[in-house]
């Protein structure tokens, strides 16, 4: 293959000369871009309004990727909205480079007619410009090696996606083995992009040109723009492209309309602004304007990722015609026609001489008055599961571009009381809704997990999940038995998981500092439904759908699950009924898996059922978690106990938009008894730091002889009196305190003072100086 590569290189010699001459000198090479940006940095008048940063380096040749910032006080980050313009992502599409370089010039040294306008923009806005995100590809085009080159120069081999230390390219359209299509490398919908050396099925036959890369974010160029976007919370963005075939030329694409007419929650606003942009750009040699369209493909593109991950409205604009690299006269004409679109987006960001509909404000901490970062802002009318949380920045600032109207806006942050406002946006000016979130009082909760003996083989740290009606938070704890945590005041459902130990769950009202003694015994019963020892379908008596069993459970053999023919079409797996050897009061399922479903429409339900097929516990998962497997637990606890359990998995789908489904590595079902589950506390609430004593229920119950009770918070001697159903005393004992928090008491009913014991009901009376408790149990004599 290298011999062929050398032949290609030799064949290129004449081609290089012809195409090097054909590329107009008006276009900036990468060294010329660098020189241009450096020259502006030397002009003292621009010191406070111009800054150029290196945000990353290219994949193969480590060329710097430059980002220009233009704003008053450019050296510091201020509480101002930001916009981003990307001149070039695909190597051959170089008109956008010239457009954004012209924008830099116009903003720094505006013509007299634009002087006031540019001053207003610099005063109120941060404008960010990346001339080229693909400097390697730009060099390939300018060097004349391949003026139709599209990708970066990531080194691959004809034998596979690994390096061979040789630039494998073809001067014709397509057939370039090296390189990744940078606009297919974002993680959102990345899986649908072209695989390595995948042919192009279109008539244009641009084979291998759309390679997605070895993994999402594999390319440093894309990681650079990702990190920049996450840091700066851009309101708007334009990524300039050009269409070599001409079929996409002179169009403005926005996010998104997928099969089934599925659009973004912000569709009306995004599309409306896209329409306005298109109307501002005249077509080449025409009085018609660009066309505004939805993006309809799912394959790892930038503009869809920008919207989902950051809330930025990015527009992919295909500028020019199939004449990708026209002469200087047409370059200037094209730039002049593109400029109004960029200026309009900047004006729309700040509401200058255009529709200003926007909801903005600052979120502050009610106790300190300081800006509150990472508060979540949810507009109910513009919300769906596909969006990453929209959060306040380091200034406490949030911004949402909206249509005129009234919206229900929620403000939330863990540890704070949530707020909800009705906010009206109007087109005349941005609507400011500042918000003060009041912190919930915080209390120290000391947790002791003291109910099992070391050594126990545990391969993960314990973690606590606290949840109430509006908030859920997960806290990983250290690998030990004693933990001190800070918990907000309120009523919370506490759930503690630690590997395969029996989970602990209580509803607790936290009103002050607390101590919790947690009982997490090892399970009494365990069933491996699927793992390395049970790697087939034998655990499931019901299988509905194309489930595949091969080192994991997958929803289908193929890469993607099929869309449903009807809304009631469900894939299902169901086990037989598992019968426990004795009654258990806690049942837990642990599943190790990854999943990828359409947000809000497709989902996986994990269900625990009783013998009559009633659902007694369930969880539902939608959206994406595919990058690495994760463990989930589903548990149910009841003092009435359980004698049996059944497990069911259901995958629901609608008729459009599919993904990879689920991939399950293991499912384990286990059960046991938490003998503190029915604990009754006398005096202050459970676990409250106080001098009151409390006791657990008797365990095990029923018993074959040995019974146990734990004395909690006991500091004084107590009397333990055991008697039968007839009121006859069978045991009397004085117990002195030994432990501050929890003291176990054990007694064998078979060793009673009368010498004879029969099966039946027994009572234990616990008498302290201030309180008396009574507990009941059943003896089943062997």
Could you explain how this protein is built, in words?
The protein has 782 residues and is of the alpha+beta class. It has five domains: 2-350, Aminopeptidase (3-Layer(aba) Sandwich), CATH 3.40.630.10; 358-437, Immunoglobulin-like (Sandwich); 442-518, Immunoglobulin-like, CATH 2.60.40.10; 525-672, Jelly Rolls; 680-779, Immunoglobulin-like, CATH 2.60.40.3080. The protein is 16% helix and 35% strand. Strands 25, 26, 27, 28, 29, 30, 31, 32, 33 and 34 form a ten-stranded antiparallel beta sheet that branches. The longest helix has 23 residues, at 328-350. The chain is elongated. Residues 1-21 and 680-691 have low confidence and may be disordered.
CATH superfamily of the largest domain: Zn peptidases
The total count of helices amounts to 9
The CATH architecture classification of the largest domain is: 3-Layer(aba) Sandwich
Q: What is the number of E strands?
A: 42
Strand content: 35-45%
Shape: elongated
Please indicate the count of domains.
Answer: 5
CATH class of the largest domain: Alpha Beta
The helix/strand class is alpha+beta
Provide the helix percentage: 10-25%
Q: Note the gap between the termini.
A: 80 Å
Largest sheet: 10 strands, antiparallel
Supply Rg: 33 Å
Which fold does the CATH topology of the largest domain refer to? Aminopeptidase
Short description:
The chain is of the alpha+beta class.
Index terms:
16% helix; 9 helices; elongated; Immunoglobulin-like; alpha+beta; 8-stranded mixed beta sheet; 782 residues
């Amino acid at each position: 293959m290298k011999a062929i590569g050398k032949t290609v290189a030799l064949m290129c010699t004449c081609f290089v000369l012809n195409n090097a001459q054909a590329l107009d000198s008006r276009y900036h090479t990468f060294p010329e871009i660098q020189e241009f940006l450096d020259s502006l940095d030397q002009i003292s008048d621009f010191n406070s309004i111009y800054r150029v940063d290196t945000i990353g380096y290219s994949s193969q040749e480590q060329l710097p990727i430059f980002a220009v910032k233009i704003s008053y006080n450019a050296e510091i980050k201020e509480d101002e909205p930001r916009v981003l313009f990307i001149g070039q992502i695909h190597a051959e599409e170089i008109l956008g480079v010239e457009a954004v370089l012209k924008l830099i010039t116009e903003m720094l040294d505006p013509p007299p007619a634009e002087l006031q306008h540019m001053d207003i923009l610099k005063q109120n806005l941060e404008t960010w410009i990346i001339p080229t995100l693909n400097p390697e590809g730009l060099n390939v085009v300018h060097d004349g090696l391949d003026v139709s080159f599209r990708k970066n120069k990531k080194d691959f081999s004809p034998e596979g996606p690994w390096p061979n230390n040789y630039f494998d390219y073809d001067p014709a359209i397509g057939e370039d083995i090296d390189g990744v299509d940078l606009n297919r490398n974002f993680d959102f919908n990345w899986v649908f992009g072209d695989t390595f050396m995948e042919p192009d099925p279109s008539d244009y036959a641009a084979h291998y040109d759309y390679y997605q890369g070895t993994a999402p974010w594999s390319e440093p160029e894309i990681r650079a723009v990702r990190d920049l976007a996450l840091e700066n919370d851009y309101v708007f963005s334009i990524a300039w492209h050009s269409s070599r075939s001409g079929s996409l030329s002179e169009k403005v694409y926005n996010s998104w309309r997928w099969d089934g007419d599925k659009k973004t929650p912000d569709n009306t606003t995004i599309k409306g602004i896209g329409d306005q942009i298109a109307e501002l750009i005249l077509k080449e040699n025409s009085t018609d304007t660009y066309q505004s369209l939805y993006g309809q493909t799912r394959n790892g593109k930038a503009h869809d990722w920008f919207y989902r991950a950051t809330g930025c409205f990015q527009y992919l604009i295909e500028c020019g015609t199939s004449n990708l690299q026209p002469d200087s006269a047409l370059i200037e004409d094209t730039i002049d026609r593109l400029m109004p679109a960029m200026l309009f987006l900047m004006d729309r960001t700040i509401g200058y001489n255009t529709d200003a509909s926007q909801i903005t404000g600052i979120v502050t901490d009610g106790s300190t008055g300081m800006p509150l970062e990472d508060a979540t802002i949810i507009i109910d009318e513009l919300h769906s599961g596909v969006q990453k949380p929209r959060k306040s920045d380091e200034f406490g600032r949030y911004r949402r571009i909206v249509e005129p109207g009234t919206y229900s806006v929620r403000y939330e942050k863990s540890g704070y009381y949530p707020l909800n406002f009705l906010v009206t946006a109007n087109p005349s000016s941005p609507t400011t809704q500042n918000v003060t979130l009041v912190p919930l009082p915080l209390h120290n909760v000391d947790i002791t997990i003291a109910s099992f003996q070391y050594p126990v083989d545990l391969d993960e740290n314990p973690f606590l999940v606290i949840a109430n009606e509006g908030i859920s938070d997960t806290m990983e704890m250290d690998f030990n038995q004693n933990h001190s945590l800070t918990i907000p005041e309120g009523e919370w459902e506490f759930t503690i998981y630690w590997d395969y130990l029996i989970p602990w769950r209580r509803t607790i009202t936290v009103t002050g500092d607390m101590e919790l003694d947690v009982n997490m015994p090892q399970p009494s019963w365990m069933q491996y439904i699927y793992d390395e020892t049970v790697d087939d379908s034998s655990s499931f008596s019901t299988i509905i759908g194309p489930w595949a069993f091969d080192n994991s459970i997958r929803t289908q053999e193929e890469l993607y699950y099929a869309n449903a023919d009807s809304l009631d079409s469900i894939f299902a797996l169901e086990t037989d009924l598992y019968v426990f050897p004795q009654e258990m009061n806690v049942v837990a399922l642990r599943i190790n898996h990854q999943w990828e479903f359409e947000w809000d429409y497709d989902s996986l339900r994990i269900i625990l059922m009783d013998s009559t097929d009633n659902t007694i516990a369930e969880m539902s998962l939608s959206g994406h978690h595919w990058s690495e497997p994760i463990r989930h637990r589903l548990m149910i606890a009841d003092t009435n106990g359980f004698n049996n359990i059944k497990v069911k998995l259901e995958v629901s789908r609608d008729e459009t938009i599919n993904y990879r489904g689920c991939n399950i590595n293991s499912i384990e079902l286990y059960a046991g008894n938490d003998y503190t589950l029915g604990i009754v506390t006398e005096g202050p609430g459970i676990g409250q730091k106080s001098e009151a004593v409390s006791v657990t229920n008797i365990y095990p119950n029923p018993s074959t002889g040995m019974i146990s009770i734990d004395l909690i918070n006991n500091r004084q001697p107590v009397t333990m009196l055991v008697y039968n159903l007839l009121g006859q005393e069978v045991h009397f004992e004085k117990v002195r305190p030994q432990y501050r928090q929890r003291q176990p008491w054990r007694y064998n009913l078979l060793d009673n003072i009368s010498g004879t014991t029969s099966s039946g009901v027994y009572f234990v009376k616990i008498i302290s100086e201030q309180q008396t408790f009574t507990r009941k149990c059943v003896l089943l004599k062997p």
